[in-house]
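Table S2 (text version). Query chain:
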Amino acid sequence: MTIQFNCPNCNAVIAFADKHCGKRAHCTTCGQLFIIPSKDNEKPKKIEQPEEKDRPIPGFYHAVFVDSWKLFKFTSRENVAGLVFIATVVCFKFFVSRMNYSITIQGKWLTFDFYIPIGWVLRAAAWGFLFWYYMEMIYSTAFDQDKLPEVIIGGFYGLIWKIVKSLYTIFVILLVVGLPYLITALIFWKTGVEWPVLLYIFMFGGLFLSPMAILNAAVGRDLTLLRPDYLLVPVFRAFMPYIVTVLLLGAAGFLQTQASQYAGQRPAVAAGQLALNLAVQFIVLITMRSIGLFHRHYSCYLPW
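Corresponding structure-token output:
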């Protein structure tokens, strides 16, 4: 049975399964935190978000490198469901990547070959679903949650919407942080100038700002927060903690490039690659938690 009610802040219509009543949740429209009511049209209780701190909260490194192991303890239903969800999506992505087909239609005078990239589409959908969960994890960590967020899909159309929205968000983030590189590369291509050092500077600069861009999109719930000043000010004011998030994201990205998908390998090789794909997720979860913790500990440095 579904409980339907209105957001106590923006009045948007929200629906949850009745098994979630009494739990903490947030409005996907405005981000307001509330307690899910027990019946239809009941006004949910607001959860006031913590006041902005005028100074950083200590303990960032301990929270990242010690407390993060709480995510992998089977002490809560959310952790078990979250880990099973991630493992399922990773296994799905691993096995469907090769499901690309070609159809040949022979005519009297012409022959047409149609490439059907089903595997690529399903793989992109899996990444979109994973990225949605990563964003939810950053959001919940930023507001003092130390366990994996609940997996609430919302039916078939809710699943499609989450995938499309996540892929769009990824595209915008990559476009924003990579814009200096793209503009410079285009200018060099048009003018015939060859200065690869500058291109490398812009490329790695974009990668360097990626964690902050992901943080602003995940917690702020607004892509207009991907402004240069909103990205740069917190980085310079909390440089060393931010370096930790960059190194973790870089390590996760590097390991992911080494983890290939299933392509008809021998069973032992395929099992090893699948294990590597699953192992990468441990680093990714710690990375996403570190991004949320950056907001929790250094929100006083965020201009927005």
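Notes on Table S2: The chain has eight helices and seven strands. Residues 10 and 30 are 7 Å apart (CA to CA).
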